[in-house]
Amino acid sequence: MNNLILRTLTGIVFVAIMVGGILYSPLTSALLFFVITLLSVWEFTGLVNTCEDVQVNRFITTMAAGCLFLGFFGVAAGIAGSMPLFVPWLLSVIYLLTSELYLRREKPLNNWAFSLMAQIYIALPFSLTALLPLSQESDVLPTTGQLLLLFIFVFLWCSDTGAYCCGSLFGRHKLFPSVSPGKTWEGSIGGGVLTVAASQIIAHYEPALSNLQWAGFALVVVIFGTWGDLVESLLKRRLGVKDSGHILPGHGGMLDRFDSSLLAIPAVVAYLSVLGVL
Predict the structure, then answer these.
(1) Angle (CA) 135 136 140, round 5°
(2) Domain of 48?
C-alpha cells in the first residue's frame, strides 16, 4: 500500500512537471528537457560502468550531451551565431575517441560504443524536442509546437494505460517474451486503439493536423514507443538490472520513465517533417 501511494504521488508530480514545463513557454520546455538529458545520460553511463571492462567517462559524456542539446536549441531558436555551440560537443566526442589511445584499456571498443550510444540513443532524441516548441510562431501560449510535443507524451501515457488494462484483461499472446514477458499483443493493440481514439478527440479541438494526420501521429507514437520500451528492456536484461535507477521513487530511473520516448520523439519529428509541419 505504501509503495502504491508513493508511486501515485510520484506519478502526479511527474505529470505536473512535464505538462507545466512544456506548456508554460518554449524556454521552460527547453530547460526541462536539458535537465532530463543530463540526468538520463548520467544515469546511463553509471549503469553501463557497472559492467566488466567498461569505463565510460561519465562527466565528459554527460557534458557532451548537454552541448548537443544547446546546439539544437540555438539553431531552432534562430539565435545568431549558434552553430559554434556544436563545437564543444564535437571536441568532446573527439576526446572520448582519442583518449582511449593513451589510456590503453583492454577493451576500448566498449567505451567507444557506450559513449557514442549515449549521444545517439539519449541525447539526440531529447535534443530534437527543441525543434517542436519553436517550430510554430503564435501570439498566444501554448504554441502549436508546444502542444505537439506534449501530445507525444499524452499518447505514450494513453498507450501505456490501454496496454496495461487490455493486457491484464485479455492478454494471452506474448509480444516479446525473451525481452519483456509481461507484454502481450492484446495489450499493445488495446493501447493503440485507445491512443488513436484519443487522437480523434484532440483532432476535434486542435486543427494543426487533420483527423487522419492525428491518427497517423498516434500510431507512430504507439509503434515506436513500444519499440523504445522493448529496447530499454533488452538493455536492462543484458546488464542484469531491474530498474535503470532510483531517482523517481516507485518508478525507477530516468530511462525507465522516458524509454518509450527515446524512439517516439525522432519518429514523430520525421513524421511531422514529411507532413511539412516542421
Answers:
(1) 140
(2) 26-137
